[in-house]
Amino acid sequence: TGRPWPPIPAGLLDLWRTHAGYAAPPEACLINLYDAGARMGLHRDADEAAREAPVLSVSLGDSALFRLGGPRRRDPTRSFRLASGDLLVLGGAARQAHHGVDRLLAGSSRLLEGWPGLAARRVNLTLRRVTRPG
Q1: Cβ contacts of residue 77 below 8 Å, gap of 6+?
Q2: What is the distance between the alpha carbons of residues 37 and 128, in angstroms, rounded to a whole number?
């Protein structure tokens, strides 16, 4: 209620500065929590005005089978594993690619075990620039 969101932690900003290749800082960090049976269908990240800015994703916890396609939903896709600690940058043409999570590889990481109140097996942090700089 009128309170600003907390700032993005410095460590995540360092990852952005090192890997995103974009001069302006991110303005948002989306947090997705996945339990053992979670999936995310193919979609494009197209809500931001700064669509030329990359999306930087940080994977924590169980590995996920990630699917990446093209700008059209019917384009061919390829799948690969994203493990805990992996970074994925969707920039350039890949910024408009359809992508999703086919499934989690349950038990592939113990990173999140024992975190009170956290039922997730995987946490994904996604840094985004929302508005165009300038």
Answers
A1: 42, 67, 68, 69, 70, 98
A2: 26
- Amino acid 2: pLDDT: 58
- Torsion of the alpha carbons at 79, 48, 51 and 39, rounded to the nearest 10: 0
Residue with token string 């799948």: 79
pTM attached to this predicted model: 0.87
Between strands 122-128 and 28-34, the pairing is antiparallel
Q: Report d(CA 49, CA 14) in Å as an integer.
A: 23
First to last CA, the chain: 28
pLDDT score for 36: 83
Dig out the tokens for 108 from the structure: 């592939």
- Per-residue tokens: 74: 């019917």
- 8-state DSSP, 96: G
What distance in Å separates the CA atoms of residue 98 and residue 127, rounded to the nearest whole number?
Answer: 17
Residues 129, 26 contacting (CB under 8 angstroms): yes
d(CA 59, CA 66): 11
